[in-house]
Structures are given as structure tokens and as C-alpha cells.
């Protein structure tokens, strides 16, 4: 029943949201008037699309319809996928996205882990000023591999750090930015489902570091 409901929601909202985006783009191209209003419609349609897709993914995970299947995975391959995913965004903001070269392996579900890391990278790009830097570094520990996503963006107030992984939580300081407050919640759920965890260090105005710890893949 849950699976059917989720599928129905995703299917029934796909067409109207797509139509909103298409007609909004057409209006933007053919009309020189009301550009601000048209831009708002497109922005809200994009936000609604992201919200629906995120809720569908989250619901499928929480209901057990989609489960993570951990296996020996190369970190390099996941980072390359993330770089490809955000090529356009970093070019638009002239942000340098630096990836370390690594041959380390972790025990994870690569598809879901790329989703989680991508949500964190997306936030790093979003809250870093044009011309800024986002770095991804990797370090091996005894039982875990740490993946650091480091930015020199706006940072997070110390008292807000425990709240940022809450469902739909958004700081008032970023109210002007596009978002629905579910990306980090979904990221934490995915990482915890794989017996990993996330730590955050940040200073307002100095940037943030999101450290994702995943179980190391033991060699036979």
C-alpha cells in the first residue's frame, strides 16, 4: 500500500510540474514583461520538483521499499560521479571544486552514497560565494574512511549545527536561498543506514567541513 501510494504521488505530480517548468520557460523567452514574476514561478516549480523527489526517496528508504546494499566500492569512482553532477553549477558560480586522488575503498551502496555526498556538496556550492572553493579530501582510519567536504562559504552558527540535520530545518540566515531543508536529513539517513556517521565543524563567515565516515572495505 505504501509503495503504491508513493508511486502514485511521484507519477501524478511529474506531468504538472514538468508543464509548469516548460510553460514558464516559454513565457520567459517570448515575453519581455513580468520577468520577475515568471522567474519566481520557475523557481517555485523547481523547488516543488526537488521537494517531491526528495520526499519520494526518503519515504522509500524509511518504509524499507528501497534498502541500501553495501559492497566494496572505490571512492574515486563516486567522487568522479559527483564532479560530473556539479560541473555546470561550479562553472556558473566560478567555484573551484577540488577532488583528491585516492585509491581507497569503502563498504557502501555507491548509488545512495553519491546521493548523500551530492546533497552535502550541493549545499557547499550553494552557500559559497562566487569565486570560492569547495574541496573533497579523503583520509583512512582503522575502521573507517573519512570523506571531508570543505568549503569557504558562509559557515554555520555553533548552536545551529545540531539542528541542520532535522527534517525541513532551514536557518533564517539562508531564507533567501532556494531549498526545502531535506537534503542533509536524507544524507544522514543514508549514511547511518550504512553504519556510518557525519560530523560537522564550522565557523560563521569562515566556512564549514562536513566529515562523512564510512566503514572501510577490508581486503581479503
Topology:
Elements lengths: L1 H29 L4 H28 L8 E4 H11 L1 H7 L2 E4 L5 E4 L1 H17 L6 E8 L3 E8 L31 H11 L3 E7 L3 E9 L5
Parallel strand pairs: 2-4
Antiparallel strand pairs: 1-3, 4-5, 5-7, 6-7
Description:
By secondary structure, the protein is of the alpha+beta class. Helices cover 47% and strands 20% of the residues. It has helices at residues 2-30, 35-62, 75-85, 87-93, 110-126, 183-193, and strands at 71-74, 96-99, 105-108, 133-140, 144-151, 197-203, 207-215. The strands form two sheets. It has a five-stranded mixed β-sheet with strand order 2-4-5-7-6, with helices on one face. A two-stranded antiparallel ribbon has the order 1-3. A hairpin with a 3-residue loop joins strand 4 and strand 5 (144-151). Helix 3 packs across helix 5 (110-126) and helix 5 (110-126) packs antiparallel against helix 6. The longest helix has 29 residues, at 2-30. It is globular. The mean pLDDT is 85.
Amino acid at each position: 500500500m505504501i509503495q503504491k501510494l508513493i508511486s502514485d504521488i511521484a507519477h501524478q505530480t511529474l506531468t504538472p510540474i514538468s508543464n509548469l517548468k516548460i510553460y514558464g520557460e516559454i513565457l520567459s523567452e517570448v515575453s519581455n514583461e513580468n520577468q520577475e514574476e515568471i522567474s519566481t514561478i520557475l523557481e517555485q516549480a523547481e523547488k516543488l520538483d526537488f521537494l517531491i523527489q526528495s520526499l519520494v526517496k526518503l519515504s522509500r528508504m524509511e518504509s524499507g521499499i528501497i534498502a541500501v546494499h553495501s559492497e566494496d566500492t572505490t571512492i574515486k569512482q563516486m567522487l568522479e560521479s559527483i564532479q560530473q553532477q556539479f560541473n555546470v553549477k561550479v562553472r556558473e558560480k566560478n567555484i573551484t571544486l577540488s577532488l583528491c586522488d585516492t585509491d581507497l575503498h569503502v563498504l557502501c551502496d555507491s548509488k545512495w552514497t553519491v546521493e548523500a555526498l551530492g546533497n552535502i556538496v550541493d549545499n557547499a556550492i550553494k552557500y559559497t560565494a562566487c569565486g570560492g572553493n569547495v574541496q573533497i579530501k579523503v583520509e583512512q582510519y582503522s575502521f573507517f574512511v573519512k570523506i571531508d567536504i570543505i568549503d569557504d562559504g558562509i559557515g554555520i552558527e555553533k548552536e545551529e549545527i545540531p539542528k541542520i540535520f532535522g527534517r525541513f530545518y532551514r536557518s533564517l540566515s539562508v531564507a533567501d536561498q532556494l531549498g526545502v531543508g531535506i537534503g542533509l536529513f536524507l544524507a544522514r539517513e543514508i549514511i547511518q543506514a550504512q553504519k556510518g556517521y557525519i560530523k560537522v565543524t564550522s565557523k560563521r563567515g569562515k566556512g564549514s567541513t562536513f566529515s562523512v565516515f564510512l566503514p572501510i572495505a577490508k581486503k581479503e
